[in-house]
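Appendix B, record 7
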Amino acid sequence: MTTLVHGSDTLTRDALTVLQPGFVGTTAPDWLLRRIGEGLSSVGLFGRNIVTPEQLTALTAQLRAERDDVLVAIDEEGGDVTRLEVKQGSSFPGNYALGSVDDVELTRAVARELGRRLAQCGVDLNWAPSADVNSNAENPVIGVRSFGPDPDLVARHTVAYVDGLQGVGVAACTKHFPGHGDTNVDSHDALPRIDVDLATLHARELVPFRAAVAAGTKAVMSAHILLSALDPHRPATLSPQILTGLLRQELGFEGLIVTDGMEMQAVSATYGIERGSVLAIAAGADAICVGGGLCDEDTVLRLRDALVNAVRTGELPEERLADAAARVRALAAWTQAHRARGAGSVPGAAVQEGTAPGADIGLVAARRALRVTRGERPYTPVTSAPYVASFTPVANFAVGDETPWGIAAELERLLPGTETGSYDETTADTALAAAGERRVVAVVRDLHRHPWMIRALDGLLAARPDTVVVEMGLNEAEPRGALHIATHGAARVCGRAAAEAVVGTGA
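Structure tokens (predicted):
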């Protein structure tokens, strides 16, 4: 490829500054360190980059040895979407669980503890919280990542979450503007379209974002969705009407506007990542998130040169790129100042559950989020090793399929000898044959969205009415079983709280 201008050029530095790329590995590759030296101001971390808190701390120190004001970002929502604990499951319940409790002080405490752990490891920008109002129960990508379907509830918990993170020096990035809740398409796969009028958007989708802006969220992430009432032609990430007209001018947001991942099909399939990135910056975005799927040096160079070339040809005003870069540097300066003041805890300290005041807040929250419904017959707690039948839908891209979920591991801890099976598009007969004479615990996720899962559970309950049902997704279906436990999310701590209820030691 052709490098258009020399690496020391101001324009090139600005183009690098607005990128938030990812990489492969648990240490920073040489190419990434070189680009940081040339002006790259942000790095995004994913589950593939993290093994232990100590390793993560060493990685962020390695990045800052090149440049002490580099922004280190992560997609750590807690709940179903975790990068810190991608192989274990999160120590914190997600938004749906917190919204179901509806205690803003609890939400603030959870976000603060999560932020403390991020700060200890040197991470200072979290692409969270989700402020989407999950008004469509068929939504395949938001679901339990939302605080719920009520705009005012979502707004107050979004504010609490932002306060919790930023109180320990971790910048919040409220997403997915102007609201991804009323979609039935995952923008990782295609372009969702929302056809509601402006009055509905203002009364529903925009309520949490107005609150987050008023609360001082340092960043906002755009959504790759088409809102025909605002812009019938371009998705929000590429729309001047939405990013500049609505977010900047009408809502008065002065912080950093970050795009959702530019490699997602909702943008890349139509525009390509290079043109998409140019259009996003021109529309008012300040930082280009890329790296969930594309995570190599060539991607960084392609985007850098596309931005530089767009300025050279007049497609992208140079002052717009300079303004975007200045906003990135301003946020970096804010986080650097917090680190210098010692916000959070001492870098490098242990960050495992139980090591600091409030460190068990995630389990406390998960227990409070349980909703337990008993069947018509008296419930007899499970006292011998059961069979756990986990009915497993395909995971969406944001959640991923690396993170374990369910309650089998936690039941095994309480009842050694517990056996388990994972089923996809199965019938009840298969699970019943595997269970034998054992008591059955059926674990489902978004039961209402999966007809095959409903049929399998119907058959299981008909044959074994003493079955315990644990719903770990949206709690939309009617309670079923001898005991029905709604966890409001599939985080590890949600599984632990549910297991306690199954054996009779919890709710």
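Remarks on this record: DSSP finds 18 helices and 16 strands in the chain. The longest helix spans residues 318-341.
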